[in-house]
Queue: 2 jobs
Job 1
Amino acid sequence: MTRPSNRAPDEMRAVSLERSVARYAEGSCFVKFGETHVLVTASVEERAPAWLRGTGKGWVTAEYSMLPRATLTRTRRESSSGKPSGRTQEIQRLIGRSMRSVVNLRGLGERQITIDCDVIQADGGTRTAAITGAWVALHDCLNWMLERGIASGKPLGDHVAAVSCGISKGAAVLDLDYAEDSEAESDVNFVITGSGGLIEVQGTAEAAPFSEEQLIHMLGLARKGTSALIELQKAAIA
């Protein structure tokens, strides 16, 4: 088969992770998955959510937004409508869950880390790029806290990366861009830890149901993709 990008079925787009791009944030990363570009920052707040007060535990949460001209035509800012869309809320929760899965929340004390993910340019896979870059920003934020004695122990337990897979023209492919995603029969997002644990699998059949065999094939592709992404994370923080 021929993909719109002329990549092999198991080939990722070009990926880059640039650290310390935001002067004032405790952690930051500018992540690129091909033509999808996301700016991620991690900020420490000296308070935990009200429902955690007195527990000695902290929290990690996320906010996600897409700039108006991140896409081919202008998208109205969600702030002008007064509330985030259902899609935005779902992605924010996914990013937050993904980061919390590898953080020792008690090691933060009663503090909150907020991960802000702003999509500068979108060409498919914005949530997977955001999660992969968020880990780098979170890593640097936690190191900043450790250096100042406001985090304890080993607050970060593992790497986390994410990638999309799909069924396109009957074949399983890795890391869909928009041209492919918009016409794919199925689209599945995988969030995987450095040790190989599955945090989340989000799958949708758009044109036709996919089989268990196809799902297992996509999981294999996702493991290859996230392994490569985690190696890039390791190189970025070295």
Note: The mean pLDDT is 95.
Job 2
Amino acid sequence: MKKALITGVTGQDGSYLAEFLLEKGYEVHGVIRRSSSYNQERLEDIMSAEEAEAIQNNENFHLHYGDVTDALNVTRLIGEIKPDEIYNLAAQSHVRVSFDMPGYTLDVDAKGTLNILEAVRILGLTEKTRVYQASTSELFGKVQEVPQSETTPFYPRSPYGVAKIYGFWITKNYRESYNMFAVNGILFNHESERRGETFVTRKITLAAARIAQQKQDKLYLGNLDSLRDWGYAKDYVECMWLILQHDKPEDFVIATGEMHSVREFVELAFKHVDIEIEWQGEGVEEKGINKATGEVIVEVDPKFFRPAEVEQLLGNPEKSKTLLNWNPTKTSFEDLVKVMVESDTEKVGKELFNRKMFD
């Protein structure tokens, strides 16, 4: 039985990856940060809420307290578990927040990666342990070519992107310096019903559900013209695994090869709750109108603009498709939005029901 260690296991990608590896017959170890509030909702499909809260191990799934910024803790955990595979998914991954917390973003996204690689090296596990580093399309930032591939020059436009560049290059450096199987998966935007509620896609689908059920009046967004390559996180974790099964360590772009605007995402999300959006105005004055009622339900708020904007990101998944036999469009953009809206519609409905129960 192979052993896998996942940092960031309570996140969107970590929870899907844990499920995927357990289905493959792995013994899965997840690293969680200590919190005074319950932060393991995404793991409840893997283990019960009671088990997660008490950090009790079930047969093949084990949770450990830790933090990638704590080098001693990282080294101890890797030394005790001796994993065959490490998936470093821990990160401060909110781009806008990285402008407000650049130092913390650097500690987690850059130094955290170094701590893992150095632990594998000093523990003498370079022949045994394969390391996957979760990289990001934000490396490309102010894009130098369209689409972006594994050879496209980087030009990050946020503290998050800059910190992730260090993670990318230190992974490559350890691979070439110490003959480690250490690789980068350059993931373009990937979403799901488990995406955090502060991320723009989930913010949109939640708002569509709440507005349709008359629990919210408006949705406020930043740049509606931003173009992104959006895929389904559940599909992307399979590609992470395939990269570590490849016969040699290489870096791969993980993307769909399709690009859509935030405006398109909004239109499609509201369409799934039977609301047709009609746009009026331009720039910060642009508004989304409910065509049936004439109500303004979408507005632009400049506070959501980034200090340095990334206008478009479009990945070239050809290498992943050819060498890994991975299907980047297993879940279409339309199906992704539908899944998210349906999940949030159910969630909002339950919130309403529970509120009535206690009124």
Note: The first helix runs from residue 12 to 23.
